[in-house]
């Protein structure tokens, strides 16, 4: 399983001119058996802008995209792992929760554009580094 950070979803759905194609190239290379996963926190983060702006077309695109992904649960243990990550690596709460969710569910990778997260876990991969 590969956990997609919120920024990955935003880049793809909103067709970021620099990053969308790079993500898609990496996705094409994945084995068809690899699951792409998110958490409820990803949904919360990516839907703020279209809801705030009442952009129904963008909201629909997000909803379509998100329903194609598996959403992982965030039980109490995730929050304990996140607490440890915040203490040890000084991560922001949402970042710690994303990473903790990926760790708790034994994801093989955590795709992000945030280099700070790479230092907190070997799961974290800034897929744009060196591009």
Describe the 3D structure:
This protein is an alpha/beta fold. The protein has a single domain, classed as Rossmann fold (3-Layer(aba) Sandwich). Helices cover 55% and strands 11% of the residues. It contains seven helices and five strands. It has helices spanning 6-13, 20-28, 40-52, 56-67, 76-89, 93-104, 115-118; strands at 2-4, 36-38, 70-71, 109-112, 124-126. A five-stranded parallel sheet has the order 3-2-1-4-5. Helix 7 (115-118) links the parallel strand 4 (109-112) and strand 5. Helix 5 (76-89) packs across helix 6. The longest helix is centred in the middle third of the chain and has 14 residues, at 76-89. The radius of gyration is 14 Å and the shape is globular. The model has no long low-confidence stretch (mean pLDDT 94).
Quick description:
This protein is an alpha/beta fold. Helices cover 55% and strands 11% of the residues.
